[in-house]
Inverse folding.
């Protein structure tokens, strides 16, 4: 999880102070893009774009991920949403699984109780 | 049923899932039974196969061989309507401490996780902690991407079933 500490906010605002970087965020708001895509769109060298993306990454506004030979950039908020959705899918699977286990556990428990009662008789 | 029991039961039935790190998944749940009972449901294949694949997952367990003791092995074979071929999952129990702890490997690939499940009894209830450690972040994501497919739409059905039971 990204924690927005005061120092982090300074870094975020510094990152946002540049018009190109604001443009990059706007672009990523529409769709994820590779650094190459962004460099073309903003008519910039690959090295120049890498620097901008690195600033946005340090500010926790953008996350990047290597997919084969390209590096894909996306808005950090979107990455967080995806992570939350992923966790929710896992939770649903495990809830269903453990609900089934619960039924069996309840059944074994009542069986054990019944057996104990029978023995006492 | 005494007043208030329903509420405490709902709280207890909560399943938590946490991605503890890039390579670790932790799932917990408390069961209203002593540890030896939960352990039994986990370690006897005839019981295990009745809950490991929830009905709502749309998969079926074709076979379930489990030799739950330290050094023993397991092999689970699943079938899913979307796939022609059955899928096999297998590995070795690295450590089995009855009523307390089971550790096993997943050996379908060299990217398989090491799984530890612990059973902690407290006041007649048992906290189950399921912990998976993957060799890499990519391995965790790949392994879990497909595992929860097809669940949400069938969830209402399961809720109905459970509501009818209690």
């Amino acid at each position: 999880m990204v924690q927005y500490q005061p120092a982090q906010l300074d870094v975020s605002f510094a990152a946002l102070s540049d018009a190109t970087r604001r443009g990059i965020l706007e672009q990523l708001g529409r769709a994820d893009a590779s650094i190459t895509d962004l460099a073309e769109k903003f008519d910039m060298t690959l090295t120049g774009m890498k620097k901008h993306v690195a600033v946005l990454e340090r500010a926790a506004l953008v996350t990047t991920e290597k997919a084969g030979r390209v590096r894909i950039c996306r808005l950090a908020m979107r990455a967080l949403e995806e992570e939350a959705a992923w966790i929710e899918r896992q939770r649903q699977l495990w809830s269903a699984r453990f609900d089934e286990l619960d039924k069996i556990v309840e059944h074994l428990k009542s069986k054990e109780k019944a057996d104990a009662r029978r023995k006492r008789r | 049923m005494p007043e208030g029991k329903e509420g405490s039961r709902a709280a207890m039935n909560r399943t938590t899932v946490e991605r503890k790190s890039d390579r670790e998944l932790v799932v917990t749940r408390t069961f209203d039974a002593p540890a030896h009972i939960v352990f039994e449901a986990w370690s006897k294949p005839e019981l295990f196969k009745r809950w490991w694949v929830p009905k709502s997952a749309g998969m079926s367990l074709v076979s379930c061989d489990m030799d739950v003791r330290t050094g023993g092995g397991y092999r689970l074979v699943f079938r899913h309507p979307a796939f022609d071929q059955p899928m096999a999952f297998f590995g070795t129990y690295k450590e089995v401490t009855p009523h307390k702890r089971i550790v096993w490997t997943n050996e379908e690939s060299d990217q398989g996780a090491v799984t530890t499940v612990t059973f902690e009894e407290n006041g007649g209830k048992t906290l189950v902690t399921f912990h998976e450690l993957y060799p890499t972040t990519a391995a965790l994501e790949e392994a879990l991407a497909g595992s929860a497919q097809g669940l949400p739409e069938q969830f209402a059905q399961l809720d109905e079933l459970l509501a009818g039971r209690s």
